[in-house]
Design brief:
By secondary structure, the protein is mostly beta strands. It has one domain: Porin, CATH 2.40.160.10. Strand 12 and strand 13 form a beta hairpin. The longest helix is centred in the middle third of the chain and has 4 residues. 32% of the residues are buried.
């Protein structure tokens, strides 16, 4: 769920392409576009060393993505669409990120496949960094992005966006992992957006899980700030998380910062699972090429800071 642009975190259309996606075919009723990225990046941290502290702190984290998106008009009231996106990481690790299809109507869009939960339009408020972030508010499995066996509805009504989803089972075919969620957001004309959502289901056999989310963002000229808050339960564990993010654009340079915190509590014992600050800079040469660097200041005892640097080409 990484976004490296300064913009309000508003749920995109299910078939929206990247700014650099190329339309390879289009007529009055059909279109097909292809896009993706090549991203060479590395991470430096003592976390990358062997358990005994030996070895190299350097780790290659390069990746490439390619996506195909198409739509076809069936009639004046019905349009079909589909999307496929794959990712290849260093070491030839291949995975499907998105694979879904559906239809768009005057009442909204309906789709099925591997796709984001309804809550992603809220968690994207603060998941804006090119390096780190987005680690504190996915408290239960049904809140996450890129979920298998996922039915999704999304509708936009002027400044109001409503989304809901139902996950039948997880990627392992576990029948006891179904969940449902609903989320809504309202974008005011003066740059303020507010959102709320709820998830309920199971994170495994006999493990009940639920979560609610609150989100707010504000954008004015070249400045952006956002916050997300989540609270929930997974079995006998109480969970809380929040994220803060801000960005400021200066010509081709974007300065960004974020704070992520997540805490679990079981039998009266509280544990900090995520607690870090991030400072990041991005330089965009043009719409295709950017470089970035981010430094993570870890606040949890025994865990190390991280530096991540990369260069990304979008096509």
């Amino acid at each position: 769920m990484k976004k490296a642009v300064l913009a309000s975190a508003i749920l995109a259309s299910l078939v929206a392409g990247t700014a650099n996606a190329a339309t390879v075919y289009e007529d009055d009723s059909k279109s097909l576009s292809i896009g993706g990225r090549a991203e060479a990046r590395f991470n430096i941290s003592d976390e990358n060393k062997n358990d005994d502290g030996t070895g190299n702190a350097f780790k290659d984290k390069s990746r490439a993505r390619i996506n195909l998106k198409g739509k076809a008009k069936i009639n004046d009231a019905l349009t079909a669409f589909g999307k496929y996106e794959a990712e290849i990481k260093s070491g030839a690790t291949f995975k499907t990120r998105y694979l879904f299809a559906g239809f768009d109507t005057q009442a909204g869009a309906f789709s099925y496949g591997k796709q984001d939960s309804a809550q992603v339009m809220l968690t994207d408020y603060t998941d804006i960094l090119a390096t780190f972030g987005g680690d504190a508010v996915d408290l239960v499995d049904g809140n996450a992005d890129k979920l298998d066996n996922n039915f999704v509805y999304s509708g936009e009504f002027n400044n109001l966006t409503i989304s809901s989803n139902y996950v039948v089972e997880d990627s392992e075919g576990n029948k006891d992992t179904d969940s449902y969620g609903i989320a809504a957001q309202y974008a005011f004309p003066f740059g303020l957006s507010l959102g709320a959502g709820y998830v309920n289901g199971q994170d495994g056999t006999d493990v009940d899980a639920n979560q609610y989310n609150l989100a707010v963002s504000y954008e004015f000229n070249n400045f952006y700030a956002a916050a997300t808050y989540a609270s929930g339960e997974k079995g006998n564990t109480d969970l809380t998380g929040y994220e803060l993010a801000t960005a400021f654009k200066m010509d081709k340079f974007i300065a960004q910062a974020a704070y992520n915190f997540k805490q679990s509590e079981e039998a009266g014992v509280k544990t900090d699972d995520v607690d870090y600050f991030v400072l990041e800079g991005i330089y965009k040469f043009n719409k295709n090429l950017r470089t970035y660097a981010g430094y993570l200041f870890n606040q949890i005892d025994g865990e190390d800071d991280e530096l991540q640097v990369g260069i990304r080409y979008d096509f």
